[in-house]
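Supplementary Methods, section 5.1.

A reviewer requested that the exact input to the structure prediction be made available. We therefore reproduce it here, unchanged from the version used in the analyses.
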Amino acid sequence: MKKFDSRVGVAGVFLATIGVLTLLYFADSLSIYLRVALAFTVLVVSGLAIQRVMGLDGGYGLYMIGSRKGLKTIDAVSKNHRKFWDAMAIWGLTIGFGLLTYPLLKGRIDKRVFALGILSTIFIAIFVQPYLSVAFQFINMPKLQTAVSNQASSLQPEASLISYALLALTVVFGFSGYIFVSVLANAASILIGIAQFLISFSSGVTNTSTLSSQIPGIAPIIPGWNIPLVAGIASLAILLIIHEFSHGVLSRMAKVKLKSIGLLLFGIIPIGGYVEPDERMVKRLDSQKQTRIFSAGIAANFMATIFFFVLLFLVLNYIAPHAYPYGVVVTGTTPGYPANGVLKVGMQILQWKGIAINNISDLVGAGIQSKPGSAVSVVTDSGAFVFNAVPQAGNSSRGVIGVELGYQPMIKTPYAKAVYFIYTLLALSMLLNFLVAVVNLLPIPGFDGWRIYQANIKSKKFILFLAAVVVAGIVINALPWLFYV
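The structure derived from this sequence is encoded token-by-token as follows.
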């Protein structure tokens, strides 16, 4: 009976947490600082409650759920397909460190696996990365959707000198080089924006746009708050399980004893997985075996990235178009303009000035730019309206009604909802697996990249220098959160 009661208690905490996070998600009247603080507090409280009800280890909202049952599965898997798992670890390492993998492993590498890793790196850089913008649309983060909207509309790799340089960098240094440069480049952009603001401030003409336009390079991922709840939790659980499971398999292949396996949660959100090997046994291994163990999780996440990309490509191009149409909808209105208070967010635009609207391009043909004083007839799925256009602020020759439009799927049937959920799950799984893989390559204590560097580079000062540079870059990447109000 006690076990049943504890499950009921956990279910109650889980549902209550979902409800509060959902309310915070739609609480646009609250500042982003307050919403983050309240969401953090809710997760801490729910984590403490679940920890107490279940009698688990942890604190401050963090707790661990572990089991020894998973160890038996890892043991069974490690005894089969050993060549595959060993090749997968080297394949992932090659994607992580590019051509540098060969000298990193002192030439002791299967050339076929090495070549496949380089080709896979190019494939991810050219074909997979453009599709990441599809998943970024599911992340509710300031300025992010605007930054990726153009890429999301074409899903084509950008052809420019910078893109070719990034591709060459990725091939030579792998995605470890890519993420290292990305962190520093965004940090430099943020510092330039801050410098421009300080210069304008000292000159007496304050230009705050140089601060507000900056995009944070890091952000918390909280299902139900800034990513879809169910799909978000599922995608996080998937990536954590395959990441830690792969570490465990390679550890057992190296005859390293595993103590436990489980998940680390913050509130109701899985934020980490763990396989606890005997560290003394790991340290006694040669650098080659250590490197394979440390790179296994990264390799698994890269493999999952490609797997979910293929599924997403098929769904997006061959299933979704037949499951639901896309339409032009109202995403917002401007106070003080005719459409404000009349057109509601979510209304689908069917006609504009007598012309049928099926996509954004149709609005151009309908003459969306009107003259001040002219009549603008709008037919929506909720009724027909007629507005008199007024001069646009800053451009008196252009007439507007003050409506913001977007292109969104029309999810109305159960089948369409099911397909859209699968689409969301695949997109988030692809994105989060990719992000976890590349971020784990960074030489930061606690990350797989840190242990790979330690196993293969003798100069500890050099590793510490790289870690200091990356940590400083990450701190700078977080500064734009201070500029949002």
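The two ends are 49 Å apart (CA to CA). These observations are discussed further in the main text.
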